[in-house]
Amino acid sequence: MKTEEELFKSLNLRLKDFKPDDEVNKHWSDPNAGTVIKVKEKPPPYIVFIIFIHLKKYDFGGRWEKVAWEIPIKYKNIPMMLAHKKFGFSIRAFTNKEEHAKLAQEAIYKINKTIPVAEQLIEPLIKSQVDIGAITLANDYNFLRSRYKYFREKAIEHLKKEIYGDDESEKHYEEAIEEYRKSGSIEIDFRVIKGKAASYIAAMTDAYYSLLEHIFVLIRPFIINDKNNIPLSKFIGLNWSDKYKILFDTKDSKAKKQLDVLQKIKEIYRNPLAHGNFRKEGYSLYVHFPRVGTIPMKLTQADSIEYFSFYDTKETELDFICNSFDKFDSFLEEGSAKYGMIYIKRELDVFYDDKNRKRYQAAMNSEKKFGALVEKMIRDSETARNMDW
Known about the structure:
Blueprint (H helix, E strand, L loop, with lengths): L3 H11 L3 E3 L3 H5 L6 E2 L8 H11 L11 E9 L2 E8 L2 E6 L4 H34 L4 E2 L3 H24 L5 H14 L11 H24 L13 H6 L2 H8 L5 H22 L11 E4 L3 E4 L4 H4 L12 H18 L3 H7 L5 E2 L2 H9 L4 H20 L3
Antiparallel strand pairs: 1-3, 2-5, 3-4, 4-5, 6-9, 7-8
């Protein structure tokens, strides 16, 4: 691995034809000066800013209407302007000469070649910023939620067709459910439900746990307790149940019950699907026994395992899973995660730095106060997105 000194040497070599524009007022006093050059493979705006401002210490201008920043440079002594505007990154040449347009394209090529070196130089800073929480987390709650809802709706649709065909009368449905329960195995798994319904139930279940993983990281700044102080990078690496135990008080009977149900559904439904549809400890194995045939490896111990039985309920497997997930949704929206859920359901990204965490928590005294904060942050987000400074 190269040292920092070696990396800076490589960076400077790649940028040897660049220098700050020392005649800014002469070249760029008119904000509309120059000609925008069409280039292939535009670099990400943030990495351009890091290269020239953070690493090379150039001067820059901004912000103003629809402009985040502008960096005046010279490439092979030709004035150019690098900019991040509402519609993305651009480079302008001071004149419209064809040779200057070619030089602008060449400058972008050189910048792109510099990016890997710049990334290595800033990697230590990025890691330290993550550890102290100086980050923003993209909020994909609604996308992940819609994925879960899609598979859930499909599972319900296909299960109904498989249970009672095209007759959707309530009476026929109740009779069909009764027959379904009687024909079920004491070890409830996807052998009971066939076809597309089983596939959609599997996809629905997997999508919900993926959603939970996302929610638990997003709501963390809104949860106040003594356990919630480990570095973010470590927290993200924990499995979902360990995250749960940090965020919620599992000594509370309600929180403990919710965790138990989620763990049981995951153990019976999701884990086997992630491991070739085999359950742990031999519960998917059937032994060839002389003159008897195949018998469960775990024999009658299967009956002692807390599998869900539908002999005394009108719930199907799908009903149970959906109802359990709905109850957990309510637990999130009504308990200690309430304000976090209000926030992330409004599609706002989550700021993890100390300043914003204190800002969130200070507003969590009342729904009215917190609602006002959310509305302000939505306005601020729209202003930033549209660059209406």
